Amino acid sequence: MSLSLKYLELTIFFNLNLLTLDQGLEGISIKNINFQTILQTIIALVIAYGFLISVKFLSKWLSERVPLRFRAAAKQSEPFLQALILFTTTIYVLSLFLQLSTQNLLAITGTIAVALGFAFKDYVSSLIAGVVALFETPYRVGDRVKIGDNYGEIVTYDLRGIRLLTIEDNLIFIPHNKIWNEPISNANNGALEAQVTTDFYLAHEVDSELVIKILYLAAYTSKYTQLKFPIRVLVEEKPWGTQFQLKSYPIDARDEYIYKTDLVRRVKQAFAKHNFTYPKSYFSNE
Predict the structure, then answer these.
(1) Can you give the pLDDT of all 286 residues of the chain as single tens digits?
(2) One-letter-per-residue 3-state SS of the chain
């Protein structure tokens, strides 16, 4: 029932717009539609589909084989190329069936866009947001982002939405229209590196200077650390103990959790050698 109403709305709205745009659409004529025209259309659609699949495959293949500094660029070219293929194919198919001038092409494209936008506003909102995101770049393929409660790496960028791969290995589809009203946290913003914050909690009586030295040593000697970025240790007193925050960058943002695990493992080994005590639970009655 809902789909029928949508179709009725689309038909009525589309026809009304065509009536009001008669003057702008003068000169449009339908070409002779024959077997060759239909065959050309099918071939164009098949080629376009093949290009779309190839672009997705090649961008992923290239991103894993080029030097690290070029990986982000290889991934980020995918949505632009897909949009170009879809736009070119649409114009070509229209030209097979209609005799269009530049003015008429703009007029009929605008009419169809308005009619579709009226009937499928949520879907079109995502498409428009996808185009806007191509230029404003709140996120790109390869970025590690948090949208709502979901955090992970963007592995695909389609015109309607993105697919986010989480640390739990779940693939989440998020429509682009989330950018209108959802805050987006981007950890690396097109770069290979993303800052990682690793927290450690110890009792008040530990030697803070020694702890800081251990944290710096762990970060500087980790094989995952990108040494061209600064490494910082922040200290904050809590009612139940002392919080140490180690802020550093892995060479590759995709190694975020492997890097964090490596730091925690080696820091805890050093803490054990010095018999550092951990704080009691804040909720403990002891």
Answers:
(1) 444 444 444 444 444 444 444 444 555 566 677 778 788 888 888 888 888 888 777 777 776 666 655 566 666 667 777 777 877 887 778 777 776 666 666 666 666 666 555 555 666 677 777 777 777 778 888 888 888 888 888 888 877 788 888 888 888 888 888 877 888 888 887 777 788 999 999 998 899 999 999 999 999 999 999 999 999 999 999 888 899 999 999 988 888 889 999 999 999 999 999 999 888 765 444 4
(2) CHHHHHHHHHHHHHHHHHHHCCCCCCCCEECCCCHHHHHHHHHHHHHHHHHHHHHHHHHHHHHCCCCHHHHHHHHHHHHHHHHHHHHHHHHHHHHHHEECCHHHHHHHHHHHHHHHHHHCHHHHHHHHHHHHHHHHCCCCCCCEEEECCEEEEEEEECCCEEEEECCCCCEEEEEHHHHHCCCEEECCCCCCCCCEEEEEEECCCCCHHHHHHHHHHHHHHCCCECCCCCCEEEEEEECCEEEEEEEECECCHHHHHHHHHHHHHHHHHHHHHCCCCCCCCCCCCC
List the domains of the chain with CATH numbers.
Answer: 2-136 (1.10.287), 144-186 (2.30.30), 196-273 (3.30.70.100)
pTM of this structure: 0.56
> Do 108 and 153 meet the contact criterion of CB atoms below 8 Å apart?
no
Q: What is the 3-state secondary structure (H, E, C) of 244-261?
A: EEEEECECCHHHHHHHHH
Residue environment code for 127-161, b if the CB has 16+ CB neighbours within 10 A, otherwise e: bbbbeebbeeebbbbbbbbebeeeebbbebbbbeb
